[in-house]
Amino acid sequence: MSGTFSADVSGANAFSDFAHEWRSRMGETFALAPFRRTTVSGFSARSRGFRVRDMMFNRFETAAALRTVGRRVGADDHVRLWIVHRGTWRFEETGGAEHTAPAGRLLVQTGRLSHFSAAPHTLVQVLVLPAAEVRPGRGGPASGPADTAEVRLLTAHAAMVGRMLDRLRPAGIDAARGTLAELARAAAGGGLDDVEPLLSPALAQAARDLAGRRLTDSDLSPSALARELNVSPRTLQRAFAREGRPLSTYIRRRRLEEARRELVAPHRRMTITEIAARWQFADSGHFARAFRKYYGRTPTDYAATAARETDAT
Q1: For residue 73, how far is the Cα from the chain centroid?
Q2: Which SUPFAM superfamilies does this entry report, sorted A to Z (predicted)?
Q3: Taking the mean position of all CA atoms in its chain, how far away is CA 130?
Q4: At what angle are helices 233-241 and 200-213 packed, to 10 degrees?
Q5: pLDDT by residue (tens digit) across 204-260?
Q6: Nearest to 250 by CA among 263, 235, 242, 240
Q7: SS3 state at 36
Q8: Per-residue b/e over 41-74, b at no fewer than 16 CB within 10 Å?
Q9: Which tens digits make up the pLDDT trace of 246-272?
């Protein structure tokens, strides 16, 4: 069984709508925990996830506080990786010991799902998979930083799987599942196989995400991204080689796209020279040559044409 799940609910029937959609998409293997009455009555959440074979991934954002109550759910041979991006996530072990994971932390928990709670406006991602895939250590839940290269690769790959799962054929689903397992091992164990070919799509996606946030940074380069992702520049370049273009070409294209948007923005205040500098081109001449090669016109001609078309409408 594989498929995607999506819910954005609030109001009187929010929880029943959410629970119905969850049961139909995720099945009893990944059953919802029972929630307290106050949680059900004030339920307001946004959720995006998927099931791929015997694994489940979900991105969950709650507007109100929530807390479970009652029986434990899930399976004894499950491992859960909770990745807390915002707010606070609390998990209670059998016996009453409580573990708190604030924003920026990864919590790894084995066995059935016991009581948990979340503060209002908490954003968490969770991956559930067979314990045999991760081989967790004995003892209670383990916690660590959520900003490691391994965790970033895991969440980048999961986002990509969620976007493409409904279009994948069986062989593609098997590959997506295998990579999720490999990345979960890396995230939970703190290690990463630098030459693992299955990681290439997720590594390329993580590099794209990082580059997109740093396009105006003069220090942005393939080597800098490799350092942040804790891989060698050669490994990162190999990941992009599978896509048919170098990482430096991707960065240049994204900077040109952002520069073009600023060129044609209504009531533009920046000059072409200022736009070139903002998007890290050496000078306006260098920018003009790169722009013309990509768009077929100089920045001046492109902006003038866009202005005429706007006036005509």
Answers
A1: 26
A2: Homeodomain-like
A3: 21
A4: 100
A5: 888 888 899 999 999 999 998 888 776 778 778 877 776 677 899 999 999 999 999
A6: 240
A7: coil
A8: ebbbbbbbbbbbebbbbbbbbbbbbbebeeeebb
A9: 899 999 999 999 999 999 988 888 999
